[in-house]
User: What shape does this take?
Amino acid sequence: MGDIELLDHFRRSVNSGVMVEVPIRSVLTNLGIQQRSYDLAIEITEEMKTLINHALADKYPCILGTASLDGHPNLSYKGSLMVFSTKKLAFWERARKGGFAQLTANPNVVVMYRNGLLRKAWRFYGQASVHEHGEIREQVMERTVRDELDRDPDRLGAAVVITVTRISTLGGEVLQEGTI
Assistant: This one.
């Protein structure tokens, strides 16, 4: 069975409610979606870490950009955004509104940090993963700034971890990029 026939078979099976086993790479390729694996040569610097981890206290919260599968964009401030590791950012998602739904449908995101006083600004592009339970959720919750966590007294939020694949200036100059 060729890829096109396989995709048609997959669509018919999904529409009829029948479970089928299909090589996901073939389906994604035929849908025009490319799977990427990154050699993450990203290294979030100490300066970036310090500024991002203090962004809310400094009154320069980060902005998260998401998009739905059909391309509708959403922007939201993320006061809880933190550097989770040298290659990852994270935040506590308490609202679960428009941007959260987009994260689960389309994991491609961009985070913008800008401090006008220090004249420092970066964009962090990456892939988001949502953690509603488990150890990673607990780790992010423990590291979330108190002001943000206090707005979720019942702790109903989820942790979102972003694996950074590119860092650029606001002018578009690529500072770091994972190889594909």
Summary: DSSP finds six helices and eight strands in the chain. The chain has two domains: 1-35, 46-177.
